[in-house]
Predict the structure.
Amino acid sequence: MRGLYLWQIREAPFFDLRLGDGAAYHDWARRIAGGDWLGEGVFYQSPLYPYFLAVLYRLVDDSAATVRIVHAVISAASCSLVAAAGMSILGLRGAIAGLALAIYPPAIFLDSLIDKTGLATFLVTALLAFVAGRRWLAAGAALGLLGLTRESALVWAAPILLWIAWEDSRRLRAAAAFAAGSLLILLPVGLRNLAMGGEFHLTTSQFGPNFYIGNHAGAPGSYQPLIQGHGSAADEREDATRLAEQAAGRKLTPGDVSRYWTGRALTFVRAQPGEWLQLTARKLALVFNAAEVTDTESQDVYAEWSWLLRGLLWFDFGILAGLAALGIVLTAGSSRSLRLVYALAGVYAISTALFFVVARYRLPLALVLMIPAAAGVAHAWTRIRERRYRALAVAAAVAAVIFAASRLPLEDSRKSRATHYTNVAVALSRDSSKMDVAAEMYRRALDADRTFPAARHGKGLLLAKAGRHEEAIPHYRAAVAEWSEYAEARYNLAAALAATGRPEEAAREYAEALRTRSDDIDTRLALARTLLTLNRPSEAEKHYRVVLALHAEESRALVGLGVVLARSGRVDEAIRHFRMALEADPQNASAHNNLGSALANQGRMAEAAGHFEKAVALNPADESARRNLEQAQRVSKPDR
């Protein structure tokens, strides 16, 4: 089934793309495959998957098709593992759990994505099989590996150890074996983090940012980046560190950064307990909702390319949760092993709600629920055959309530489709030969949600790349109208306004973007340049000096400040700043051109001509530098 699904989506324009975390893991895996096996600093993202990819890249190749095929194989193996776990607990009828996973559409979709979900699915089902078979050393190792793939799964250590203490006759040996298996995997990673980053972390250092994303005023309950529009893994780590260091006023370690964001989240919980409880209730509802919450790629979009996936969409999380509820009621008190399964499901559901909910983070819960769902199907069939309807009616009523609750309209499917198509368009637009396909993806995104700000912004960028700035402006305006804090959209709106001869409006938009992100150097420099265009040099000077206070060797700011000084007659100071810019960046054509102009104003034509020549060599399209060079050569000829 998974092979058929891959065959069906092979022509999709995003089949070969790596989106979101997938792109970061791909780059990381290529570095590892190239020989960088230890990396640098404390791990911020889960490390096992990129190492898994690196081995695959060395043994086979790094194509997207190869990765998806390997995912399909281990996803199919996961069906066998959960069937084995089900049979260990329920007997032969436990195999229904494996059949359910085989046709479960979120698993088919999520396990095929180029990210760590497929590997996490395999490890979750392996853990279930080992726990059900009471193979504790292997179970501990599986949990350790899972913790290096999906850190939140480490909460399962507590219910497993409690169950061992309560139920296993060899509790001390069993618990020691389980703990040893986990530590055998996790301790080397913790020691590696200590050696490479100076701090001991068993897995990663991203607890704090993730906890804050799910617990702050205005949090939606699903994923929301720390900075609007910054959803990539690299952006998230950089933003988390930069914002924390700005607040602290000093450099911070990864652990300090994590504690900063954890503290902010806990401050919100203490200050607004009512709002936090409402938010947590919403997240719990999302955990058990039928919708698959999208953060990067959408199941609905993939279903457009696969009739197999479309035909299975009826079997959603709401159906699975209802069948699991049926099993829980019908098997009450009949199996001690099922109690551990229920504990694993409950603990994971709560831990997910304490952070934020997206489809791939919820999938481990669905894998656990396959076993009680199998019990529900098997026991319901037995009750029907034996005509024992009373208990079945009670169980069916509970299942119906769960199913109905899962249908609450908590997520807008239009947003998930728009998110997916926008992410695809952004990736495609990096390749100049695929601009037409990118434009089609933006069209589909806007068809799904006309107001989706990221799609509006992206469409504007595509038009601007084609030089159609006037057409881009309405798209940028629509994006900031929907998302007033969308700094990138405001920046690009300002750039389009400047390109169409409206510097006053451009300055206002740059200032608005700067209000949202006061530390953004590019925005501040663009505003300063625009103020110079408007003949407001004193205001421009302030912005250049702010940049230099933060980054003393920023060559663009040194050149800009030099221009301001030259205009005010302070030519010697201007020359000094232009020379400082060239010390910081010898390839700065603008610094050479402006230094040449300042030297020419002092009558030093031969020296000026040398800098004009370098400016033209570095940037042949600069007509100003070319004219300056020709004039300097004409003036200096008589001297020769």
The radius of gyration is 30 Å. The first helix runs from residue 2 to 9. The mean pLDDT is 93.
